[in-house]
């Protein structure tokens, strides 16, 4: 099976080398790399041009919403990809040396699986934290949200996934949650209980704006619920509202 690694980049020039080198050193060889630069203002394009065998897409038109820009980046990459398995990767993250081999092997052993998730090694201020399955204080409909770079999908199912989860009305709902909900409620998936992706958290990335229990965090959580029930309704999937929904609704009204 051929792997297509599709990379979304915006002003992450300082991390690109580590990202690309992690792919060039993989224990699996059948890999194509597609790099989407979303109108970066730093030296991202200068850096990526030094690498051979990397397909580059230069984008000059953006929306005001990072989530929609990321989705557009991946959609454009998928259009020119030729692999049987799509690996999503943000340019400030990178893969463990054997990630692609392990994921491909799992797909080959499980022909009915559409999506595979792995777990991250979170890098924050040069510290590495190995994330495993987590229990939430309130039981959510989606559980642990695997970062986008921890998601791999068989290409033949990509259109079905995107046709189901894409809705531009919900501008704070990123691709990771959309795909996780799809996998959990609409199709078969596999979760590798291994840390195969290095996931970087910096002061200027999106996660820093949504620190747990902050005002922004609660309002994004409310939007996640709205997105979830809208998706369920569109697909005739009946599900009852739980304590997490009502508690989130109460908190957002309180702090509005």
Task: Please outline what is shown here.
This protein has 256 residues and is an alpha/beta fold. Helix 5 crosses helix 6 and helix 7 crosses helix 8.
How many distinct domains?
Answer: 1
The CATH superfamily is identified as Spore Coat Polysaccharide Biosynthesis Protein SpsA, Chain A
* Element-by-element helix/strand order: EHEHEHEEHEEEHHEHH
Per CATH, the architecture is Alpha-Beta Complex
Shape: globular
Q: Describe the sheet with the most strands.
A: 9 strands, mixed
CATH topology: Spore Coat Polysaccharide Biosynthesis Protein SpsA, Chain A
What Rg is obtained from the alpha carbons, in whole angstroms?
18 Å
Residue-averaged pLDDT, rounded?
93
| Topology, number of strands | 9
**In whole angstroms, how far apart are the ends?**
50 Å
Instruction: Count every helix, treating DSSP H or I runs of 4 or more residues as helices.
Output: 8
Query: Roughly how much helix do the residues carry, as a percent range?
Result: 25-40%
């Amino acid at each position: 099976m051929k792997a297509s690694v599709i990379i979304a980049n915006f002003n992450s020039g300082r991390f690109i080398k580590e990202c690309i080198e992690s792919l060039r050193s993989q224990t699996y060889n059948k890999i194509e790399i597609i790099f989407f630069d979303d109108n970066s203002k730093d030296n991202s394009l200068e850096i990526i041009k030094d690498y051979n065998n990397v397909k580059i897409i230069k984008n000059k038109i953006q929306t005001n919403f990072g989530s929609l820009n990321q989705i557009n980046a991946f959609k454009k990459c998928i259009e020119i990809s030729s692999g049987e398995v799509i690996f999503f990767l943000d340019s400030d993250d990178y893969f463990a040396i054997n990630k692609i081999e392990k994921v491909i092997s799992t797909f080959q052993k499980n022909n009915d699986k559409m999506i595979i998730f792995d777990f991250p090694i979170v890098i924050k201020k040069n510290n590495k934290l190995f994330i495993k399955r987590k229990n939430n204080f309130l039981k959510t409909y989606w559980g642990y949200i695997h970062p986008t770079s921890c998601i791999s999908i068989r290409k033949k199912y990509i259109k079905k996934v995107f046709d189901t989860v894409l809705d531009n009305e919900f501008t704070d709902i990123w691709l990771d949650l959309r795909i996780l909900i799809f996998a959990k409620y609409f199709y078969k998936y596999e979760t590798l209980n291994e840390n195969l992706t290095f996931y970087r958290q910096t002061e200027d990335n999106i996660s820093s704006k949504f620190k747990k229990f902050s005002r922004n965090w609660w309002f994004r959580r409310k939007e996640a619920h709205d997105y979830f029930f809208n998706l369920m309704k569109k697909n005739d999937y009946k599900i009852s509202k739980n304590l997490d929904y009502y508690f989130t609704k109460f908190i957002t009204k309180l702090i509005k």
